[in-house]
Amino acid sequence: MPNPLSNHKIALGVTGSIACYKAVDLASKLTQAGALVDVIMTHEACQFLTPLTFQSITHRPVVTDVFDPQSELSIDHVAIAERADVIIVAPATANTIAKIAHGFADDALTTTILATQAPLIVAPAMDAHMYDNATTQRNVSMLKDIGCVVAGPASGRLASGLIGKGRLLETPDLLGCLRQTLGRNGDLDGRKIVVSAGGTQEPIDPVRVIANHSSGKMGYALAEAARDRGASVSIVSAPTALPNPFGIKVISVQTALHMQAALHAECADADALIMAAAVADWRPSSAAEQKVKKGDSDTWEINLVKNPDIIAGISYESLIKVGFAAESEDLLQNAESKMLRKSLHLIAANDITAEGSGFGVDTNRVILLDRNGGKEELPLMSKYDVGSAILDRVSGLM
Ligand code: CTP
Predict the structure, then answer these.
(1) Which of 2, 23, 95, 219 is most open to solvent, judged by the fewest CB atoms within 10 Å of its CB?
(2) 187-201, pLDDT tens digit by residue?
(3) Active-site annotation holder among 3, 95, 139, 212
């Protein structure tokens, strides 16, 4: 499956904030993803960067002036407005936000924004006091009221030296926002999908846990694929090293019991639960309050008790349940019996010993089994694409 951004026509507005150097990375990532990127720079942005910077990356002309005879907009001033699937202004200064909010069209960017019917994303970047200013806040609210997606800003160190709210979102978040915005009328629009991810950790004492090799990559990729098709998505996540994906609610848990409680609550109003987490089957019967010292003993016995089977115990009317079966032998037989035992609609069976599947990697190879005896064998593909294939089936079941 192609990258969700490929072949999309994306207009990138760049305005006069020092954060515009980050827009170069965004333009680069979009171009690499196969998007057609039209950059429109304000005159102030040209104080920081040259049009050639973006032109070299996007391999397309960069617009700075509607009246420049070399510019496509001098012939058709709404050409980009009509062509774009989405417009993103990153970074967006307080001044440009004010102009968009009040319908100004005094440069190439604001003219394009006023003339477009495509969704608009604005990613503010400015000094914290400018962002907090009541006028800016009112302008930002006005943008939200007219259906514009306001992405960020993030908090942190600002160019002024202040620590506060006003940082441009990082590229992965801006890409996530674009994917979510482009997919918002997708087949999962209006649906709530809950995904569990990562490997639970069961404490032995304050410094030790029983853990497993799950990286969380399968669940996170699946959650992003669902977001990109319009779903509202929650991840109930055991500890992972992965960043929180844009536009997805992440509920962090540690143990199987925490995960069970969070999933019960989260699934009450959900359409589907996709259980990609590797749940510890056993936990120490009690976790020591203090660090266990090794002392003179050569062995250490830990008494384990069984954790509940989380997905088997969740049943809400009309909740679609999808599980994973990570197996090292008797793949199909084990997967099928798990599907029946846990009353799942679908199970993704994967052989963790096969090359390219299993823990930590970005790819997976699964066989999808359903309750009606259906069996679909998928080739080795990215975890995002495996997620998309599972969601095709979930969408069909809904
Ligand atoms: N699962 C769960 N609760 C558990 C264990 C597993 O909800 N306590 C879910 C997993 O997230 C997965 C599916 O059940 O979607 C199958 O998990 P797996 O670990 O393969 O199977 P187990 O039920 O643990 O069975 P076994 O130990 O026999 O492999």
Answers:
(1) 2
(2) 999 999 999 999 999
(3) 212
